[in-house]
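Repro:
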Amino acid sequence: MSKHEDRIKLLANRFVPIVAIFALLAGSAVLSAQVKSVAPYYARLNTFGVFSAYSGDSSHMLLGSAQNRKLLDFGAYYSHRLLINHIVNWQYNGELLPVALESDPVVHIVLNETSPNVQTTVLNDVQVSACSPALLSYNFDFSNQGTTTTFSGTEVVTCTRQWTIGEGVSPVGFQWNFLPRHKTQPFLIGHGGYMYSTQPIPIPNAGSFNFTFDVGAGVELYRTRTKSIRAEYRFHHISNHNTANENPGIDNGLYQVTYSFGK
């Protein structure tokens, strides 16, 4: 073997380890970049939060028939993460409502009779399924034992509101946050529970104890990895499930804002 060949062999023996080291370093850099490119989750294992919710009207949306009912709630909630991947963050969610206000329309009726007697009769705070202001005139004949009497006058109907305070709890609930690696996450939510009020709602013959359920959707915006704000819309139903004499039920579209924190 010539001296030239020996020199080439020596350079090769020195160059191969250097190339190997650079290749190892480059592979490590690529692997590190790949690990860093996977965004961490915006999700908590245990979450606490406070919220307020409001609905300005009710109607026959699905099950309930009582109209013009309002809801105003103040509460707190707890959730625990059950499953998380890059698509969904599935959580148990339970809510507590120490203040649950429900408003019913009540009717104020004034009967001004002009015949056969001139007199005024007033009926105050009569709960009804629905209320519409009205000014009515009446005129009818009433026969009794061959004698006919004509009754006439006016009826004035005005609508006011009566708020009833209650409290409730929804121990069964779930929340599904989608795209948990993003700060802005759409979600679905649903609960089942009960509500107790200080008097029957939405009418006197209904019950003070009612069952509740809700389903809804919204957006959760993470300010940090542990704090977020939620805005959502829910279909909310109240019903005594025929445990009282009457069960008109209340369907509301509920708007809710929630502040959440945890680890």
